[in-house]
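REQUEST FORM: STRUCTURE PREDICTION
Request ID: SP-0412
Submitted by: Lab K.M.
Chain count: 1
Length (residues): 631
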Amino acid sequence: MRLFQGKQRALSDTALSSSKHLATGLSRRQFGLTAAAALAMPAVLRAHESPKITSKGTYDVTVDRVRIDTGNFRKMGVGYNKSQHPTTLRFKEGEEVTINVTNNLRESTSIHWHGLILPFQQDGVPGISFNGIAPGDTFTYRFPIQQAGTYWFHSHSGFQEPDGAYGAIVIEPRDGERVRADRDYVVQLADKHPHPGSRIMRNLKMMPDYYNRSQRTLQTLIEDSRQDSLQAALKDRGMWGRMRMMPTDIEDVQGFTALINGRSTSQNWTGLFRPGEKVRLRIINSSAMTYFDMRIPGLKMTVVQADGNDVKPVTVDELRVAVAETYDVIVQPRENKVYSIIAESMGRTALVRGTLSPKEGYAGAVPPLRPKPLLTIADMSGMMGGMDMGDNVMQSAGGMQNMTGMDHSNMGAASAPTPQAMDPSAMQGADHSDMEPSAQPAMKDMDNSQMSGSSTPGMNGMDRSGMAMSNGDDPFYAPGSGLTPKAYNGGKFLSYTDLRAARPLYRNRTPSRTIELRLTGNMERYIWSINDVKFDDADPIVLNYGERVRIRFINETMMAHPMHLHGMWSIVDTGQGARNPIKHTVSVQPGVTSDIEVEVDAPGQWAFHCHLSYHADGGMFRKVVVKGRPA
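STATUS: Completed
RESULT:
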């Protein structure tokens, strides 16, 4: 959807304040409107367009200090094209784009094109692919558009992304969408906090639970005692206390306002429809730290795309969108009524409601937050395999033995956790629990080239496509996990096992080696790491052009980590072979081992990191060097 040909500025939401929603869903370019005509339209429906529309070929983007108003608080932040509402850039598969980025800040900036396949020099990561964009300078990105789908872009400098520097990318397929829709809307989620990112990180370093507003109190002790017994409740608290952890440690940062396209619930982003029309929602989670569970009560959602790649359509009632993931869903409201688009944080501490409506001026209902989940012994089992908890107890998996006599019935875990759930080291075939990080040269970005893809019992080389259990268990969550998602209406919740690639991108072949990446951390000092080594102290991960590599994530922390590899696709092992889903961000749950495969087809230097902003800054980050290049 583009307004005019030639070189034009990406229009801000303010500039489009007078644009009118086109009922047919066709672009203004198809209608042949000029710039003046487009900007002269009545203002009533401006909120329903994707906030920015750009022209083909050359695009101008400015990085600015902007005033952000969430309806709950106001603050200064960072935005694109002088707007707090995210810019949407619309490209077409096969075109060559030129993007001029002008830095109007007093500090260096950058833009990373999240999920786009491009030369590494255009990837936009300071210190890895380029030097950044100095204040007052304009940097020109040039790269071909080799794909289609829904993606996004954001700053990779400091905390500018959580402070507001993010936008959406929609790429039209060369031959049109495989699944057609009458309407097409971007639904970009964010967690806007009153504190700037630098202050949030400073507070987390000072006190990791600084923003935890869900801590257990005397009242919850009384409630747990009534449910089980005082002895069981005290044992439970003693266990968590010895680990200096809390079962409510699901979200590092609370107290934020959730947004859809830069608008809070009170500001009510709205998309219009006519009954019977098919509506495509391009869901993007641009949050700094928040996983969102998405639902539209009264409507089924048919997932047709994950992270920009088409999947076999699967109909669900609810889906969890990890930080940095994107999903395209099709909904078809048949009744002449208002529907609520609900995005609820995984920790049930915040919620934003948008609206699908047949008419302007209506707002959907706002449901109450659902009960807060609690982490269980299954979620913390991974950390027993070697997670550094400061000078506290339980540095090894063996420490788990002292806990097996406790009554954990009120935690929702299985009464007899399996050895795999209890001791992750058993899943590797070796016990690394008594090794100090400095004594683990073989574990630092370990190359297990002799390991077969099926070396982890029950996890790899098997068909997991039918493993979503009737009791709600998901094979990508630890058995008995308190985070296992359940649909709001008892219906279908999307799992990675439901995703089947519509068309494989690569020939299915056996990986030449396995690289093991343990996701680790020190909660007391708020340090995050890979294989117990922070980014500043780590050697790069070296890959060879043309090889296929299996990367095994072992999450030894109590947090979910959305792992993002730049420049190359991550093929998630769901046991479906050539139909395994192809993603750019893979969520790894607490206490779980998950495998991806990477076809190493992009020479250069790339970033590889957890996409939780403060985890990446805390050290869960790696540089990847691809040696060699096409003949």
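NOTES: Residues 154 and 214 are 30 Å apart (CA to CA).
Reviewed by: T.R.
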